[in-house]
């Protein structure tokens, strides 16, 4: 009885080829794609083109109806590096590049607590936040204003106790789920090269409100480039990295695949010519 082992050997051979290609793809091509795109990104967009500013870096002044944040801008010449802002809770001036316009995006998570039982505006606990951003260097200091509905806790408001079974023993996570307000505004505020101070004013139309901010709240200041593509790359930097690495990976894989096919083709032609001679 004869056994035909040609097919199993062919399957084993192709399996070995596929395994080698996966190893090359995962351990050689993909890391090279990451390194090349990272170098391309840093050459196109300098590392100091985007600056994250925690809310704790601002000076704070509270008044009856809200809160005001203000801080000086320190303009850094092109010859010097822009220092990073450590998130240590200590207010300090915001370093930005000299003679450059910036876009300011902000992402705020906060609780609003009102000491009264009834807000007087809406019985549901919804109040109105008036958000203003000022620059003291301009003739008209107000550069952005928006009225935003927010949810304020009042005396008698609480969490739904039944949801503690789903959230576990942490009551703060349940309060965050039910009562935290999230404000995210991108690509709306311009900081000009002449601006040397930012004022960020919150006014809540409620009786003596108290605002508690999440530690992750803050601003992102990014250079405003003339080319729209670079502005988009700065604004959506995570998506840009994913798409960029995939594109570089596909390009390198295509070049590698073409080189392998050409090598196999030329090698097979040489083997056929040798077999004909023999």
Automatic annotation (TrEMBL):
Record carries keyword Transmembrane: yes
What is the phylogenetic placement of the source species in the record? Answer: Eukaryota, Fungi, Dikarya, Ascomycota, Saccharomycotina
Task: Please state what the protein is called.
Answer: Seipin
Q: What keywords would UniProt list here?
A: Membrane, Transmembrane, Transmembrane helix
Would you say which domain of life the source belongs to? Eukaryota
Q: Which organism is it from?
A: Zygotorulaspora mrakii (Zygosaccharomyces mrakii)
Chain ranges passing through the membrane? 16-37, 239-265
């Amino acid at each position: 009885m004869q056994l035909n082992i040609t097919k199993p050997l062919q399957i084993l051979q192709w399996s070995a080829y596929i395994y080698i290609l996966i190893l090359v793809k995962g351990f050689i091509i993909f890391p090279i794609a990451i390194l090349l795109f990272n170098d391309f990104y840093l050459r196109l967009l300098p590392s100091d083109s985007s600056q994250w500013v925690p809310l704790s870096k601002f000076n704070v002044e509270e008044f009856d109806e809200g809160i005001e944040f203000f801080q000086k801008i320190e303009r850094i010449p092109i010859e010097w590096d822009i220092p990073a802002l450590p998130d240590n809770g200590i207010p300090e001036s915001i370093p930005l590049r000299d003679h450059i316009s910036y876009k300011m995006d902000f992402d705020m998570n906060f609780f609003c607590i009102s000491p009264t039982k009834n807000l007087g505006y809406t019985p549901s606990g919804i109040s109105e936040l008036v958000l203003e951003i000022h620059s003291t260097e301009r003739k008209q200091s107000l550069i952005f204003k928006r009225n935003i509905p927010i949810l304020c806790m009042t005396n008698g408001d609480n969490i739904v106790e039944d949801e503690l079974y789903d959230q576990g023993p942490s009551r703060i996570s349940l309060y965050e789920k039910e009562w935290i307000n999230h404000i995210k505004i991108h690509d709306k505020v311009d900081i000009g090269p002449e601006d040397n101070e930012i004022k960020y004013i919150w006014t809540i139309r409620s009786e003596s409100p108290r605002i508690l901010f999440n530690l992750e709240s803050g601003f992102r200041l990014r250079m405003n480039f003339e080319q729209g593509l670079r502005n988009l790359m700065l604004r959506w930097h995570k998506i840009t990295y994913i798409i960029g690495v995939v594109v570089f990976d596909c390009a390198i894989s295509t070049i590698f695949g073409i080189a392998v096919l050409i090598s196999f083709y030329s090698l097979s032609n040489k083997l056929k010519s040798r077999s004909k001679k023999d």
